[in-house]
Every structure is written in structure tokens, then in C-alpha cells.
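Give me C-alpha cells for this 233-residue protein.
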Amino acid sequence: MNRFFIVFLATAWSAWAAEPALKVSLLEANVCAIRVSHLDGSFANELNAGQKVLSATNSIAGTVLDLRFATGDDSTTVPAAANWFAINKTPLAILVNGETRGAAVALAALLQKTHAGLIFGSATSGTTRDGPVQPDLAVKVGLADERALINNPYATPALASTNPPAATNDLLVLVDHLSEAELVRRRMKDGEDGEKTIAMPRPVPAQPVIRDPALARAVDLIKALALLHPAHG
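Here you go.
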């Protein structure tokens, strides 16, 4: 039994260790979003590989580095990661919150100190020698809502401190809201009054909206900077 338990723990630890330190995705067609869960020695290399995949087929306007809930014990990776963003030279927004700890705090502090980008969110619980990292733009969101929004930034939390009456049905824009009278009118043939049926265009579904407050503000910043300073070449 003990032997089985040890093997199970080893397998679970191996699976956890094999998880990627970061996840790279594309938002609003041209904003690179880098979601970090853990900083380790390979972090800078993974940054480079992930960004190359996106830039191969997309013109990247800027980057959002999401360090909310991020941890890390390897502080030696911080200078290399900060240097990567300095070389990249695209607009950068950094997201932090009260659960940002360890090497993730050190990276946010260094990026802020070198003016590499602006920080959004709430003060970190983890500290540097100068104390917690304070955001340049404070965005208050409950931790439970923030965790849910990280998994799906387009979701609307049922009850959020930033949006109490929020509903969970985001599909209303896809519903053809017609009254019974309108349905009857459309089905009528040419009547005695000579009125013809008018074909009404169906409503166009709205584009997905980022519901994550901190992420939405960061993306807005990137897009605004891209308009002010368009990329060349």
C-alpha cells in the first residue's frame, strides 16, 4: 500500500511538473496574451517560443503579461525574462493581484522599475525589498471572480463585485427577438391593401466582449498605443 502511494505521488508530481509555465494566446486579433502560472529556469525560452508561434501568422500590436496568481522560486530567471521584454519593444501591460508571489513579483517589480510597461490590478501580497508591487492602474475584482475570468475572460460572472446584476446568459444577441404580430405580418401575402411582405435583416451577432476588467483595460491600452505608434516593416 505504501509503495503504491509513493508511486502515485511521484506520478502526480511528474504530471504537475510537466505543465507549461505559461500559456500564450491571441486576443482581439493582434494582442499577445501570456498567462503565467509558474516562473522557472526555462521561462525566457518559453516566452520566445510562444511569441514566435503567434508572430509567424499575426502582426502583434503588443503583449499582456498576466501574472495574477503566478508564483515561482527561481529568481535567476527574472533578469532574462525582463530582458526579453526589453528586446521585444512592443507595448506591454502587466497584470498582478494579491496572489502574485515569489519570482512573479520580482519580475513585475523589475518591469515597473525599468518602465517596460504599465501594471494593472491590485497590490501583490508577495513583496520585494521595496515592498509590494503597486499597480499603475488599480482594478478591484474579487479573487473568486478573477479565477473564473482567467479561465474564460469572455464569461460573465453571475455575481461579481464589479458587476452585481450580471447575468450568465451571453447568447441573447443570437436570439431573434420578434413579436407575434411581426411574425404574422412577415408571413402575409399581398393583402387587400396591397402591402407587400418586407424582408427584415436578421440581427448580426455581437462580437465577444472581454469581461475580465483588468484584462480588458490592458487590451485597450495596447490597442490605443498601437494606433498612436503603428508598427513599421
